[in-house]
Structure formats: structure tokens, C-alpha cells
Design goal:
Blueprint: E1 16-19, E2 25-30, H1 36-44, H2 48-55, H3 64-71, E3 78-85, E4 88-98, E5 111-118, H4 127-141, E6 146-151, H5 156-163, E7 169-174, E8 177-183, H6 188-210, E9 215-218, H7 227-238, E10 244-247, E11 257-258, E12 261-264, E13 276-279, H8 286-296, E14 300-303, H9 313-328, E15 332-334, E16 340-343, E17 350-353, E18 361-368, H10 371-382, E19 394-399, H11 408-416, E20 423-428, H12 434-445, E21 450-454, H13 475-484, E22 488-490, H14 493-505, E23 513-518, H15 521-533, E24 537-538, E25 542-543, H16 550-562, E26 568-573, H17 584-597, E27 603-607, H18 613-620, E28 638-639, H19 721-724, E29 728-731, H20 734-754, H21 768-779, E30 785-786, H22 789-797, E31 807-808, H23 812-822, E32 826-830, E33 844-848, H24 851-865, H25 868-871, E34 873-877, E35 883-892, E36 896-903, H26 906-911, E37 915-918, H27 923-931, H28 950-966, E38 970-980, E39 985-987, E40 990-994
Parallel strand pairs: 5-6, 9-10, 9-13, 10-12, 13-14, 14-15, 18-19, 18-20, 20-21, 21-22, 23-24, 23-25, 23-26, 26-27, 27-29
Antiparallel strand pairs: 1-2, 2-3, 3-4, 4-5, 6-8, 7-8, 11-12, 16-17, 16-19, 28-29, 30-40, 31-34, 32-33, 32-34, 35-36, 35-38, 36-37, 38-39, 38-40
Helix pairs in contact: 6-11, 8-9, 10-14, 11-12, 14-20, 15-20, 16-17, 17-18, 23-24, 27-28
């Protein structure tokens, strides 16, 4: 289809798939001589009005000369791009380079005229905006710096495309035509516009998959069993609100109904529109299914079929073709090899997954790349016994399998402004685009908590089926960078659920101060120790004794919450021995009502072997009719969570859950575990009081960008929304509760700091142009090189980083001459690779006051380690005493530019005590970088030592960050050691590596990952 151009080879790297404003996809590619018929067909479908706006006159058809001009390009001075769906044009854009006189020109002319034409049926989908981003990137690549466009005043849509793009513009009106001129260099505003459009488009594309109006299951069998039939039954039994269809080419022609669902042999036979197709056929049949779906107008696919990249090279190519095939029709894919998707919204009720039961509705969004882990997550949030049970349910669930198309980044875009999701939990086995994930995570975490556990951390390779970029960064570094972006990083699925349950239903703590109270002194002490281990500041535990009543608990909790000296409260509870466990309901009500009085502080419960406490506490917040509870026999998990009622289809509650809530209420003085009299016959417990005005204080969490208030009445089985938002999470171990609280404290601190992110300071002594010229000259020698000592000092000096020079000393006489040149006292160092920066091996002699000491030290080094040629000795002037540190910067091809800091020495290396930040670093981030290593107290006067000049150290970090950010050709910098003294610092060693920078797709136009 594509052939060589007039002057240059076809630029295949300009091809790209993009997501449009409505969530559909289109392919953008250069127009070639083979596109004449497509161009003519496209033009015939454009309205006369649109043609008039394009050519400023009636232009009913294209002449042969026009077709030739619009399909023959040199891909330098004349370029045309087309947006296509199903191989057919839906829009075109072209530029022609012009000179100062407005006539056609070649380089070095750097201005071009640009013109668009969008098919009327596709106007309003954001096609022109996407084409402008791509034609602008092409123009910059070809040396064009400005676009000019002439538009009729009535063509307001096209004027808006240009004015909304965010570029610096000049606008004039002449001869009845609006002339727009704008530079093509990205600006802060143009990038912000691009990111906002990206978010809306990708969120909409996921919404089309999670909120479909109609669904077809392709591959559903006639008999129960099998993947396709199982998903069909799950959708039907889950109560899906829209039309549902069963599709299987093996159905008899006279089969019209399958288990109450309309049955068809092909998607083409369905009269109505199909939004989403769930594909559960053998992999070899999928291409035919994709074609049928595309021709029928299906918007998205959930492919559960296996046999793709997870099966080897042949399957990997099959997966690539699947993505290309689906995108050609404007469809996005979840999968292949996916577990499925779930949306519990009352308006949707979609369970298009292999999960046999619909989870309870709630405020937690779940994403898992693994089906097995997805099952585990759903189970842990759903069950009521065996560890922490679900205090809240799920809003949406996506298990994407091989994530060939829709990824965690796309789902984050959807959750960002989803009003039904308050907390996002993600299990990731790989991160396909770390730069983008970090950017999206930072924005999402500023609105709602994002908790991530990463699997395959130590495997050294991505799981089968995942196409990801290689990273040279260790997992600890990646984890630190995610935390910098506001991600709550945990290590296990248990910790993921623990943190999610706390964040979903409690406000964020204002600080690390923790009050502890309960009826067990030992459990209180365990909680106290756990708080210290997590870096929290616990107050002395308050022991209420084992005889404490529910009223005692309530009074103690009320006092603790009202105390300004604490930011959160952990309640510990053990059962009263030898008494029946039927009175926990009143304890639950006591705790919940006390928490309502001061709703701005989080409350957690640690309980031991209170088998019915969670269900009893559920009843305390329930307004539904209550029945005798079923005991779970395992650790309960939620104070205030309602037991799971039967589903809307009449199915019983899942095994292992309570089928109802207790109907016995004890008096206010009842002890935990004490019996209580039943209510009058036919009666039910009195409803508990609501908070004033029925409002919920969410502390620092706040609403999401679209407003995330209390959940709907369907939450937690139909309980009151105001109460559902104040559920108290309970944990079977102090360590688990405190670990979750510790993560909440750190996240709250990040939220406060993110509100004032700091700035990247300007330095008057930085010579950016001089550094660029020096780098260009050095790179002219080759593609990658490590700079010599003089070159390193010159380049760093352009950014105000002074390196103390070391003079070579190949002989004792040369060492003496060098010492006289720099002045005594001096240091003599061996710089051989095996001895460099290893003072512990004895290759360094310090404070040599005269030539005699220098020559003696030189002889000792030679006797110990070999000849001078092997040692590579150097002489350097002594620096003021201080703390030795290390500053590093590296450009990772996947994660981007990273700045690192640590104390020098084997101990820090052995412990991995190094902190990291993404470049560019702000002044606040530089300060936190210095303070975030475990050995930071050594910089601030530990054990009576003199504090060192940390402001000078922070300034050095900022200068290194600026150097790497301004010049991506600087792919690695190491300053070691940097001696930080009480006044000032000295850089004693430095290495710099230059290379052509890795390609950055995050700065270019919006594109989907290439397949």
C-alpha cells in the first residue's frame, strides 16, 4: 500500500494509532501515491460546506491534478497525513513549506502552511486535534518551526482547533480571512492541553468497555461449562442492565434462545447495536470474530481466549496482529488471555469475567494483570472470615491478561475522574511505560489514594506475554520513584487489601501521633511496638482492663479523638473469657458512634478471636432487617460493614459470609462477649443515630476531581450512605493494622507536600549554551564516550560545579611536583578500577604534610599494590573535613532521568541506603532527597558531631539535575566523593558519560504503544 516518495523513503515511524475524544481509535499515517482512490472516495463523503471551508469556494470534486498533488509528497517540504479507520480515510492534513514571500520553498525556510479536512461524520471526535499534534511533530523533525493557516471566519470549529492547541500564536484578519501563525515548540500550556486531551480520550475508551449499553458473548456453548458459557451465565446472573446476546457459529440455525438470552450464529445477525463483545473462542478463530465485530460497529473487545504471547514467539506475532486488526476498526482490547471486567454500578451490573459471583458494590477500583491474583483480590475483599474482610466493595475490576492494548495506564485515566471510585488498588507484574505511569500516578494520587503491589520484582524479566521496555534500574529504585509520585507501595496482596480498606473508609491522618486503647495490656504493647517500627509516634497505651464495658470503650475513644495530641486511634479488643459471643453488636455501635463525634481522625481496630465482632459491628451500621448471624470462626474484618444479603437474582450469600446481621442488642454496660436480651417479638434494634446533617468528613482525602461523595445506597448491601462512608476497618494482627496506618500517614504527608511542590531554581552562573556547544563538539568524536578529567571539569564548570583537580603522579618525582603545584597538605590516591573509591582497602593516603611523607606514602602504595602503572596514582589538595557523600544521575531508557544520593562508603552500598528522585528535581525534592536516607542523621550533628552544610549539598543536587535535564546527551554523571563540610563542600571525583539520548515518546504527540 505504501510506496517510495518523490524524494525520500516512506517514513514508517510516522505511523501511529491514537485514541480519539469519544474513546474510539484511528490510525494516522503518511499519504502515498497508492492512496488516490481512497482520497477520492473520502472527498466524495465530505459535505459541500466542509469543502467550501477547505478551499474557500465551491469545490465539488477533485481534479486529477489535485489528486496527484495531494498524494505525491517528498516527506520534507510537502507532507500529508491521513487518519484512517478500517483502512479508509476519515480526515487529512498537509503542510507545504513556504518562504518569506509565501511561495513554496525548501530548507532553510522554517515556515509552512497547514490545512485540514475532516469527514463530517467524524467531526467533533478530536480527529483534527490529534492530526495537528502529529503534523506538528513531523514538521519539527523536518526543521519547520512555525505553521501558518488561513481560515474562513465562519469555520469556527477549525479556528478552535488551532487556538485551543496551546501554542504561542499571532492572529490577524485580512481580505475576509483569519490568518493564524503559531510556533511549534511545545509550551507548558500545549503540553497541558495534550495531557488533558489524552486523559479524556483514554478514560472514555475504558468507559466504553466498563459501561457498555449492550454485550455479546462470542463463544458461548449450548451446555453449561466452558469459558464462554460461564461468562454468559455470570453476566446474566449478575443482573446486567442492557441487552445481552449469545453468539456461536456452531448454534443450529433454528436456535433463537440460550438460557433466556437471544442466540445468534454471528454478530452480524444481531439487529441491535453491540457495544462490547466478550471473545471466548479458540485463538485461530479470533481474526474472523474481530472482522465481524468491526464491521458491525462493536466498540470494544474483552478477549479471554488464550494462545497468544504467553505461548511463545508464534503467539506473540498472533497477538500483534490481533491488536493491529482491532485498531483498524477503531476498537480497543482488554486482553488477550484476560480474566475479564466487572462494574458493580446499579446502572450497569456487569460481571463479564470468570468470577462466579458479582462482588459487593463499593468504592475500590481493582486492576490486576494476573487472573489468579485478580481472583485473590476479589476473594479477600468479599469474604468475611479469615483475615481482613471487606469493609467495602468494588466499583470496577479489570484483569487485563497480556495487556496487549488496554493497560494499567488507561485504567488510571478512567479512575482519575470516576465518581464511583475513591481508592485504586493495582497488582502489576510489569510497567510498560514507566514515564507515563509515573506522570499519571502523580496526578491520580493527588486526588485519591493509589496502592500498588508489583509482582515479578526479582525475576529479572517480564512475565510471558508482556511486551515491556528494559530498565537498568533495580527494583528498589523503581519503588522509590513510585513513592515520589505519591504511589503507596506495598509488598504483598495482604498489605494491598489492608491499606485499601483503611483508605476507602477513613480520613487521612493529620500526622504520625497515634493513641492506643483497649482491654488488653499485652495487645496494646504489641501495637505500641509496631507503631515505633513503622516510624509513627504512639502515645502510651491506655489499658481499659478486661472488664471494660462497651460504654467504657466509647468514652475512652471519644476522649482520644477529642485529644489534640493524637492524629489517629487504634482500638485493641479481646473477648471476655467464658461468656457467649453474642454481645459484640453493642461494642460495634459504641465504637462507631464515638468515631462519628470526631469524624476527622481515622480509627482502626485490632481484635483477637472475636469471631462474631465484624458481623455484630456490621449490624451496628445496618438499616436492613436483621436476623441471627452465622459465625465465621475466623478473624472479622470490618466494623460497620453489613453482611452480604442475597443477590438480586435470589442467589444466597457466598459461603463463608454472614447471611444476615445480628438481631440482639446488649445494654450499654455490656462487656465485649457478654450476652444480651433479644428485642421484643417481631421487633428490631433501634436505628443508630446519623452524623449531624448526614455528612461525612473525609479529612485530607477530599473528593476526586469529579467529586466523590458518599456512595450510593447500594453500597455495602444497602446500608445508609452516610454510615457506609464511616466504616471502621478491623485487623486480626497489630502489625497489619499499624502497617496500613503507617502507609496512610506517609501518603497524607505526600499530599500535603504535593500541594506546594516547590520550584526548579534559576542560577545566574549556568552557561547552558556553552555546555551545549561543548557537548556537541565532544559527541562529534563518536556515539558514546566517557569524558576525560579535563573535559569533565570543563562541562561541570559550565553549571557551577567545581571539581578539585587531581594531577597524575606516575613517578615519585611527578608526585612531588604535583604536590608543590597544588600545595600541601595533599592526598595520594590510587585510581585503578579495583581501588578507586575504596579507602577501606588502603589505596588512599591523606594529610601528607611535606615531600618526605609523600614519598614514603608513595613507596608504601607501590609495595602493597603493585607498580605505578597498575595503581594509576594521583595527587590532590586536601579538602576540609566533612561527611563523604555520593551524587549520581542516570538516564534510564524506561524510567527516564533519575537523580540519586547516598553517603559514600561500603556500609551504605551494602545496606542499599541510597535515595532517588526523578529529574527535574525541585528545591523541596532536593531537601527531601538529602533527608530520606537512613544515614541522614550523620549530616545533621548525630551524637554531637558538627552539622554539615546541607544547603550547599542541596544546591549541588539541583545543579546536577539541571545539567541532565537541559542536556539529555549527558546520560550519566557520578560525583564521588563529595565532601560536605560545616561550611561548603568539595567535589573530589567526577565522571561524565555522553551519548545520544534515548528516544522519549512522552514528549511527542499522543500515540498508543506500537504493535
Amino acid at each position: 500500500m505504501q510506496s517510495a516518495s518523490d524524494r525520500h523513503e516512506y517514513p514508517a515511524h510516522w505511523e501511529a494509532d491514537v485514541v480519539l475524544r469519544d474513546g474510539g481509535t484511528a490510525r494516522i499515517r503518511p499519504i502515498t501515491v497508492d492512496d488516490a482512490e481512497r482520497l477520492v472516495s473520502f472527498y466524495e463523503q465530505v459535505s459541500d460546506e466542509s469543502k467550501y471551508y477547505r478551499f474557500f469556494a465551491p469545490y465539488p470534486r477533485l481534479s486529477a491534478k489535485d489528486v496527484h498533488r495531494f498524494t505525491h509528497h517528498d516527506f520534507v517540504d510537502r507532507v500529508g497525513l491521513a487518519a484512517t479507520i478500517g483502512g479508509e480515510f476519515i480526515a487529512t492534513v498537509r503542510y507545504d513549506r513556504i518562504g518569506a514571500d509565501g511561495m513554496p520553498a525548501s530548507a532553510p525556510a522554517d515556515e509552512a502552511e497547514v490545512a485540514f479536512l475532516v469527514q463530517d461524520a467524524h467531526q467533533g471526535r478530536g480527529v483534527a486535534s490529534a492530526l495537528l499534534e502529529h503534523i506538528g511533530a513531523v514538521a519539527r523533525e523536518r526543521g519547520i518551526r512555525r505553521f501558518a493557516a488561513e481560515v474562513l471566519p465562519a469555520n469556527t470549529k477549525m479556528i478552535k482547533v488551532f487556538t485551543d492547541a496551546g501554542y504561542t500564536q499571532k492572529r490577524s484578519f485580512e481580505d475576509g480571512v483569519v490568518r493564524l501563525e503559531f510556533g511549534l515548540e511545545p509550551t507548558d500550556r500545549s503540553l497541558a492541553v495534550q495531557y488533558a486531551r489524552e486523559q479524556r480520550a483514554e478514560a472514555r475508551s475504558v468507559q466504553r468497555l466498563l459501561v457498555p449499553g449492550s454485550v455479546a458473548v462470542i463463544g458461548a456453548g449450548r451446555t453449561p461449562g466452558g469459558v464462554g458459557r460461564g461468562i454468559l451465565d455470570n453476566i446474566r446472573e449478575g443482573g446486567f442492565r442492557g441487552p445481552l446476546y449469545a453468539v456461536n457459529q456452531a448454534f443450529p440455525e433454528d436456535l433463537k434462545d440460550l438460557a433466556g438470552v437471544p442466540a445468534h450464529r454471528s454478530v452480524r445477525d444481531i439487529d441491535g447495536h453491540v457495544d462490547v463483545a466478550v471473545v471466548a473462542v479458540p485463538a485461530e478463530q479470533v481474526p474472523e470474530v474481530v472482522t465481524e465485530c468491526g464491521e458491525h460497529g462493536v466498540q470494544g473487545l474483552v478477549v479471554v481466549s488464550a494462545g497468544y504471547a504467553e505461548s511463545g514467539p508464534e503467539g506473540r506475532e498472533r497477538q500483534r496482529e490481533l491488536v493491529r486488526h482491532a485498531r483498524a476498526y477503531g476498537m480497543r482490547i482488554i486482553g488477550p488471555n484476560a480474566f475479564g471486567v466487572i462494574n458493580t454500578s446499579a446502572d450497569v451490573r456487569l460481571n463479564a469475567s470468570l468470577a462466579p459471583e458479582m462482588p459487593r458494590p463499593g468504592r475500590i477500583g481493582l486492576f490486576a494483570q494476573s487472573g489468579a491474583i485478580g481472583i485473590a483480590l476479589l476473594s479477600r475483599l468479599h469474604r468475611r472470615g479469615g483475615g481482613v474482610t471487606g469493609v467495602t466493595g468494588v466499583s470496577t475490576f479489570v484483569s487485563c491478561g497480556n495487556r496487549a492494548d488496554v493497560s494499567g495506564n488507561d485504567v488510571l485515566q478512567y479512575w482519575y475522574d470516576d465518581p464511583d471510585t475513591d481508592v485504586a488498588l493495582m497488582y502489576l507484574e510489569s510497567i510498560g511505560n514507566p514515564r507515563k505511569f509515573t506522570r499519571l500516578a502523580r496526578r491520580t494520587a493527588a486526588a485519591k489514594p493509589l496502592v500498588v503491589v508489583q509482582g515479578a520484582r526479582h525475576g529479572g524479566a517480564a512475565p510471558q506475554g508482556h511486551a515491556v521496555r528494559a530498565t537498568r534500574l533495580p527494583h528498589a529504585t523503581v519503588s522509590a520513584l513510585l513513592r515520589q509520585a505519591g504511589v503507596i507501595r506495598v509488598d504483598t496482596i495482604t498489605e494491598l487489601v489492608d491499606a485499601g480498606l483503611l483508605l476507602a473508609r477513613q480520613p487521612l491522618p493529620a500526622g504520625p501521633r497515634v493513641a492506643i486503647l483497649g482491654n488488653s495490656e499485652s495487645l496494646g504493647l504489641l501495637t505500641y511496638d509496631a507503631c515505633l517500627s513503622e516510624g509513627l509516634r504512639p502515645l502510651p497505651p491506655l489499658d481499659l482492663t478486661t472488664g471494660a464495658s462497651a460504654r467504657d470503650f466509647r468514652a475512652a475513644l471519644s476522649r482520644a479523638l477529642a485529644d489534640d495530641s493524637c492524629d489517629s486511634v487504634v482500638v485493641t479488643a479481646i473477648p471476655a473469657l467464658g461468656e457467649p459471643s453474642v454481645g459484640e453488636a453493642v461494642l460495634a455501635e459504641a465504637l462507631r458512634s464515638a468515631a462519628e463525634e470526631v469524624p476527622g481522625k481515622p480509627v482502626l481496630v485490632v481484635h483477637v478471636e472475636l469471631g462474631g465482632l465484624a458481623e455484630a459491628l456490621s449490624a451496628a451500621a445496618s438499616t436492613a432487617p436483621q436476623a441471627t448471624p452465622a459465625t465465621t470462626g475466623a478473624a472479622p474484618g470490618a466494623l460497620g460493614a453489613e453482611a452480604v444479603p442475597p443477590t438480586e437474582t435470589g442467589d444466597p450469600a457466598p459461603a463463608g459470609t454472614a447471611s444476615g446481621a445480628p438481631n440482639a442488642v446488649a445494654g450499654p454496660d455490656a462487656r465485649p462477649g457478654a450476652g444480651a436480651a433479644p428485642p421484643p417479638e417481631g421487633g428490631s434494634p433501634a436505628p443508630t443515630p446519623a452524623a449531624p446533617g448526614g455528612t461525612t468528613a473525609r479529612g485530607l482525602t477530599g473528593p476526586g476531581p469529579a467529586g466523590t461523595g458518599a456512595p450510593g445506597a447500594e453500597e455495602a448491601g444497602g446500608q445508609d450512605p452516610a454510615r457506609a462512608s464511616r466504616l471502621i476497618p478491623a485487623y486480626p494482627a497489630a502489625e497489619r493494622a499499624v502497617r496500613a496506618l503507617g502507609e496512610a500517614v506517609k501518603y497524607a504527608q505526600w499530599r500535603r507536600e504535593a500541594a506546594e511542590p516547590g520550584r526548579v531554581p534559576e542560577y545566574d552562573d549556568i552557561d547552558e549554551r556553552g555546555a551545549a556547544a561543548l557537548i556537541d563538539g565532544l559527541l562529534a568524536r563518536g556515539q558514546g564516550l566517557t569524558l576525560g578529567s579535563e573535559e569533565t571539569c570543563d562541562l561541570l564548570g559550565k553549571y557551577g560545579i567545581q571539581v578539585r583537580r587531581a594531577l597524575p603522579a606516575p613517578t615519585p618525582d611527578a608526585a612531588a611536583d604535583a604536590a608543590r603545584a597544588v600545595g600541601y597538605p595533599v592526598a595520594l590516591k590510587a585510581t585503578a578500577p579495583h581501588l578507586r573509591h575504596r579507602a577501606d582497602l588502603g589505596g588512599v593516603r591523606l594529610d601528607l604534610a611535606d615531600e618526605e611523607q609523600l614519598r614514603r606514602a608513595y613507596t608504601e602504595l607501590v609495595e602493597l599494590f603493585g607498580t605505578p602503572a597498575e595503581l594509576r596514582p594521583v595527587v590532590q589538595a586536601m579538602a576540609p573535613r566533612g561527611v563523604d557523600t555520593v551524587v549520581r544521575a542516570v538516564i534510564d531508557p524506561a524510567a527516564g532521568a533519575v537523580l540519586s544520593f547516598a553517603l559514600a562508603g561500603a556500609a551504605s552500598q551494602l545496606l542499599g541506603d541510597m535515595a532517588h528522585r526523578l529529574i527535574p528535581v525541585t528545591d523541596r525534592e532536593a531537601a527531601s532527597l538529602v533527608r530520606s536516607i537512613r544515614t541522614a542523621p550523620l549530616l545533621f550533628g548525630w551524637r554531637g558531631s558538627t552539622p554539615v552544610d546541607t544547603p550547599a549539598l542541596e544546591a549541588l543536587l539541583l545543579r546536577v539535575s539541571r545539567l541532565v535535564d537541559d542536556h539529555p546527551e549527558v546520560v550519566a554523571v557520578t560525583l564521588e566523593p563529595v565532601v560536605v563540610a560545616p561550611h561548603g563542600l568539595t567535589v573530589l571525583g567526577a565522571t561524565v558519560r555522553l551519548a545520544p539520548p534515548p528516544a522519549r515518546d512522552d514528549l511527542g504527540p499522543r500515540t498508543l504503544p506500537a504493535y
